[in-house]
Design goal:
Layout: E1 6-8, E2 18-22, E3 25-30, E4 37-44, E5 50-60, H1 86-105, E6 113-114, E7 128-134, E8 137-141, E9 148-150, E10 175-182, E11 185-189, E12 195-197, E13 201-206, E14 209-214, H2 225-237, E15 244-248, H3 254-261, E16 265-270, H4 273-282, E17 287-290, E18 306-309, H5 318-325, E19 331-336, H6 339-351, E20 354-362, E21 372-379
C-alpha cells in the first residue's frame, strides 16, 4: 500500500467520484467520502490532466463510512455507495444535483434528496436485474468492464428478493440473464430475450390502474418509483379537468393514466412502437402516437395547457425544449434521471421564458450515485 499515493478527498462529483488533486492533476476517486485521507490506486492515467482511481486504503475515515453489506462491493460495478451510510448517500446526491444546477443552469437552490417511504436500508429494491453468464457461472459486471464478478452467497444485495433463489439453473448458455419482478410474479429472459420463465408481458399496478409492460421494456426499477413520481408530477402541475396535456416520451402510459384520471385530455408521444401499443391498451382514453418527440409537432394540440416530459438519460435537448416552449404551456413537469442533462435543459428553458418553480429529487437508486428528479416549470 505504501506505493499508492496519499490524497485528501474533496467534494463529490457527478458519477459518484470524489475529486482529489495529485501533483497538480485532478483525480476522480471511487469508493471514498469527502474529507477522508486515503491511498489511491490509479486505474486510468490515459489523460494528462485528469486521472481516475479508487480507494486502496483508508487512512482517516469519515464517520459516515460503513462496512458494505455486499462482500463484492468495490469489485462489482453496480453500486457506488455501499461504503457510505444511507443518509449521507442522499446528502452526497443532493450536493451533486445542486452543483450541476449552479454550474450548468445558473441556479443556486437548496436541494434535498427524499427517501422513498419504507426504504430504510437501501437494499432489496431493484426489480429489474441484468446478470452475466459465463461457463455456467452467474454474476455481474465489474465497473465499466465485461469481467464477470460472481454473485456472493445470498445474491445481489440490492436485487428484489422476489427473484429466483437459484439462478444457476438458468445458466445453460453464455450471455445475459434478465430477471424482472412485477406485480404478477417473476420473469426470466435468457440470451437474445428468450423467455425462460414467466411472461413476456408483465403487469404493474399504479393508482388503481393496471399497466401492461414488456418484460424487456422500460419500467422504473424501484417498486415505489412509479407511485412516487406520479404523485410528484400531479402535485407539481395541479392539472384541472378538461386541460389538454402532452405526455412526451410516454412509454407504456404511466403518466397518461394518472392525467386521464385527473380529467385531462392526453396525447402521448413515444418512439417505441411496442410501448405505444401497450399504452393504447393501458390508457384507452388517451391518444398515442409512435414517433420521435422532435418530429411530433403536428400531433400535439395547438392549445397545449400542460406538458409532462420524461426523456432518456441524455435529456430532451435544446431543439425539443424550444419546440415545447413554443406551445406556450402553463406548466411543464420534467422527470429526469441525470442531473447534468436536467440542468442543461433548464438553462435552455430559461432562455425561452420558463422559470423553475419547484424541484424534488428522490432516492430511487439507493447504494448508487443515481437519483430521479421532478422539476416543474412555469412561464415568467
Amino acid at each position: 500500500m505504501a506505493d499508492y499515493p496519499c490524497v485528501e478527498l474533496g467534494p463529490i462529483a457527478h458519477g459518484g467520484h470524489c475529486v482529489a488533486r495529485l501533483d497538480g492533476r485532478v483525480v476522480f476517486v471511487r469508493y471514498g467520502i469527502p474529507g477522508e485521507r486515503v491511498r489511491v490506486r490509479i486505474t486510468d492515467d490515459s489523460k494528462p490532466r485528469m486521472w481516475w482511481g479508487e480507494v486502496a486504503e483508508v487512512i482517516e475515515a469519515s464517520p459516515d463510512r460503513v462496512i458494505p453489506p455486499c462482500p463484492v462491493a468495490g469489485r462489482c460495478g453496480g453500486c457506488d455507495f455501499q461504503h457510505v451510510a444511507v443518509p449521507r448517500q442522499r446528502e452526497l446526491k443532493a450536493q451533486v444535483l445542486a452543483e450541476q444546477l449552479r454550474r450548468l443552469a445558473g441556479l443556486d437552490i437548496d436541494v434535498t434528496v427524499e427517501p422513498v417511504p419504507g426504504d430504510a436500508d437501501g437494499l432489496g429494491w431493484r426489480t429489474r436485474m441484468r446478470y452475466l453468464v459465463r461457463d455456467h457461472r452467474v454474476g455481474l459486471r465489474a465497473w465499466r468492464s465485461d469481467e464477470l464478478v460472481e454473485l456472493p452467497v445470498g445474491g445481489c444485495r440490492i436485487a428484489h428478493p422476489g427473484g429466483p433463489a437459484d439462478l444457476g439453473r438458468f445458466a445453460g448458455h453464455d450471455g445475459e440473464l434478465q430477471v424482472v419482478i412485477s406485480d404478477d410474479g417473476c420473469t426470466v429472459l435468457g440470451p437474445g430475450g428468450e423467455l425462460l420463465t414467466g411472461s413476456q408481458i408483465v403487469t404493474q399496478h399504479v393508482g388503481g390502474r393496471a399497466y401492461r409492460v414488456r418484460a424487456d421494456g422500460f419500467w422504473q426499477v424501484h417498486p415505489g418509483a412509479a407511485e412516487t413520481l406520479t404523485a410528484a408530477v400531479l402535485d407539481g402541475l395541479n392539472p384541472k379537468a378538461g386541460e389538454q396535456v402532452a405526455d412526451l416520451y410516454c412509454g407504456c402510459g404511466l403518466f397518461a393514466g394518472a392525467l386521464v384520471d385527473a380529467g385531462c385530455r392526453v396525447t402521448g408521444i413515444e418512439a417505441s412502437r411496442s410501448a405505444i401499443e401497450l399504452a393504447k391498451l393501458n390508457v384507452p382514453q388517451a391518444r398515442f402516437h409512435a414517433m420521435r418527440v422532435d418530429k411530433a409537432g403536428s400531433r400535439l394540440a395547438k392549445k397545449t395547457d400542460l406538458i409532462v416530459l420524461d426523456p432518456p438519460r441524455t435529456g430532451a435537448g435544446a431543439g425539443v425544449v424550444r419546440q415545447l416552449a413554443g406551445l406556450e404551456p402553463t406548466g411543464i413537469a420534467y422527470v429526469a434521471c441525470d442531473p447534468a442533462a436536467l440542468a442543461r435543459d433548464l438553462a435552455t428553458f430559461a432562455t425561452c421564458g420558463y422559470r423553475l418553480e419547484s424541484l424534488r429529487a428522490f432516492d430511487l437508486f439507493p447504494m448508487t450515485h443515481h437519483m430521479e428528479c421532478v422539476a416543474v416549470l412555469r412561464p415568467h
